[in-house]
Amino acid sequence: MYSNNHNPIYIDNKSDIKVVRGGSWKDVSYFLQIGARDWQRKDSCYSYVGFRCVASFLGTEVNANTPNPNKDLPFKTKWKNFKGKFKREKKKSL
Questions:
Q1: Is the pTM of this model over 0.70?
Q2: 50: exposed, middle or buried (Cβ count in 10 Å: 0-12, 13-18, 19+)
Q3: How far apart are the C-alpha atoms of 80 and 91, rounded to whole Å?
Q4: HEC readout, the chain
């Protein structure tokens, strides 16, 4: 049992599991969103679970005249440069 002035009584529910939020380098793209949730045992630790930092892109900006090396890749989603920000293209209907 834990006690302090803000929350006088805290009782641990003794659950053996913890919530893991977001994805990691080992997950498929669905789990990379911040809203993705999963669980793990509290006494476990893995190299792919932990704190992440985000930084601004440090590369050079691509303009419209620069050839796109990824345009012929077999991915379903392609990205384009839109006023300095990358925007997802809508999939064209057949």
A1: no
A2: exposed
A3: 13
A4: CECCCCCCCECCCCCCEEEEECCCCCCCHHHHCCCCEEEEECCCCCCCCCCCCCCCCCCCCCCCCCCCCCCCCCCCCCEEEECCEEEECCCCCC
| 2-40 confidence digits (pLDDT tens) | 556 666 666 666 778 888 887 777 888 777 787 888 888
80's tokens:
């384009």
26 vs 48: CA distance, rounded Å: 7
- Average pLDDT over the chain reads 69
Q: What is the pLDDT of residue 11?
A: 66
Return the structure tokens found at 19. Answer: 């919530």
Tokens matching residue 21: 């939020």
Does residue 44 register a pLDDT over 80?
Answer: yes
Is the distance from CB of 80 to CB of 89 less than 8 angstroms? Answer: yes
